[in-house]
Predict the structure.
Amino acid sequence: MKKALVVDNNPVLLKMISVILEKMQLQVKTAKDGLAALDVLQTYYPDIIFIDLVMPRISGEKLCVILRSMPQFQKTYFVILSAIAPEQHLDFKALDINACIAKGPIKAMESSIAYVLNMLTTQQYDALIDRVIGIENIYEREITKELLVEREHFEIALNHMSDGFLELSDDFKVVFANIAAARLLGLAEERLLSFSFLEIFQDDARRLIMEIMEKLDESHVQIGEQEPFVHLGRYLFLKFELVKNSLNSYIVIIEDITERKQAEEKIKQYNAELEEGIEKRTQELRQTNELLSREVESRKKTVIQLQHEMLKLEMLTGSIGVGLAEISRDYKVVWANKIVRGLFGDVIGSYCYKAFNRKDVDCEGCPVREVFENGKQKAVSEQKGCDIDGKLIWSEMTATPLYAENGTIMSALEVLVPITARKRAEAERECLINALQQSLNNVKQLSGMLPICASCKKIRDDQGYWNQVELYIRDHSAVEFSHSICPECTEQLYGDFLRDHGGNKKFSYIIDVEMNLVRVVAKWAFTIDDILSGAECLYADPLFRKNMNSIVDLTRCSLEFDYSRMSEIITFIRKNENIRGKGRIAVMVSGDLMYGIISMLAVLVVVTQTKIKPFRNMKNALKWIKET
């Protein structure tokens, strides 16, 4: 599509839609109403026309009918822009339109326009028929619905009148005509609309109309009563009314008085009655207009009053310190005060369980469900959820029913009292109580005489059993033991494994039960035989079989390996598979030991079945060992 026309009486919206269409590479022209659009379309033939539904001086519906009657616009796309889509159902077939877009937020309208253009371009017309694009972005308004009903009643009344009813613009073009007016003037409604009122008549009749138009500053003027006014062989009675408003329109009432003129005597006989009837009908119309005006003014005042009340309600509910939210029967948030919006963001229209608790299903123990399903007058529940920043919060939720006029439950009012601070205090109190209870359980005191073995140092308990000294002290006090082997005991127990044939100490190790760690320190030069002896030394200690971690310090040593003897290492590993441990081994090395370390790690990996990593300092090695 290359050309577009936008027809709307709102200049701001007209400009915004033009900008949107120009961004989509369309050539755009605009018109402020139906009459202006018809003037533009005399020389401009767009591919698509966007038409506002409610406009002065020819409505969007009438404009569609007029344009569809013209051959040059048979293939033009018509798209209705409607702000009253929720309140009024459009007959796509009767209007012969291609699509309808709901007026709403500009971003939403831009997305809807882009979607409609794409569907029309790809000829996916069925996706647009009988649906309003973007209707989810606007809400139904009761006052608009009532006004539409009033307008529909007014148009039905006018179309059932035997008299013609015309509305003229300030330049005397026809902007509204009822069925009787089209019949009396001999033109179809689509041709009559936007037609110059003067061009309908010929010669003397046109001259008389022009004289009448010059007098329309008065309240009303009529012709055809004192002197005959003939059009298409019919005697017509025309009455002109000036409607003083921002557009200065004119009302023309046309009555066919042919039979009355042909039977003059009979007309004279009923003339007084006829004038009385006309006056009465005019008065009724005037009264109807006055009633409508008063009704519109009353509704405006009601809307303003409701807005004031809503503002007052917002101020009152925002200052009580608790959240209030109205939940519909389908668990959607209909209204929320600023306390709730401050905690959870803009939640109106969202499901309550998703807005308050970020869940995809209703919450366990939901008080609103108790109200809807079980009919409870009051339901209370403590709920855990997340605020707008994702932080955990607790709320005490109280739900009460809200009733419709027929006595059924319409929705539920949910009161949210923040209790996060209380929950935290309760949790801290519980932790403190548990800690105090544990401390009390662990408080033990040793006193009196302890029977201890003079040889093995075991202690005899009250039941006569002999226990190791560290176990007895642990069970009767708050002391915990960490086992290590001192250098003297290491030398005494494992000296044969730790020294070479010359009596030189090759390496040593310390087992720290508390840190679950074995520390192996290698010194000077050692061989594969030394490694095997050291491994047998570790295996001899049952503590090493408890999946301990290890740090092997090779920074101050050199390794002398005969790679042809690697089969001995493999044989040793296979013999000791039943005592392997699992854990982490950090190897501290210097740069010139890499070849020897390869062989060393080969042994350690298979023996321990664990992760091994080289380091250059103790700090990083310990940090890696402590990782879980």
About this structure: The chain has a mean pLDDT of 78.
